[in-house]
Amino acid sequence: MTVNSAVNDASGYPPDGARARRARELLQEERRTRVAQLTVLEHAEDAAPDQGTLARRESLQSTLEEIDAALARLDDGTYGLCEDCGEPVPEGRLEIIPYARRCVQCQQRRR
Description:
Elements: H1 3-11, H2 18-44, H3 51-76, H4 91-96, H5 104-109
Helix pairs in contact: 2-3
């Protein structure tokens, strides 16, 4: 057991807990922001959008899927656990990327 896991195991993200509620708020705010960006992008597009616009739209849609998956992990009690190694994702990483699926080490291995 790592120091990080001992700290996170003590309070974790139980679905009805305060930390889960805060994480849900962050995720919902991220979702609202991405939906607004996507809406603006779609309304600003010409009849034939350029490659940059298409790439931005795809990126926003992908992020929305990640956010929705993180909200599902909150509901099932697995939020904050790395999908690869099972160790807790550092709280600082979740503050920056609240929809992160993996710890930094596992994410770097995927690159």
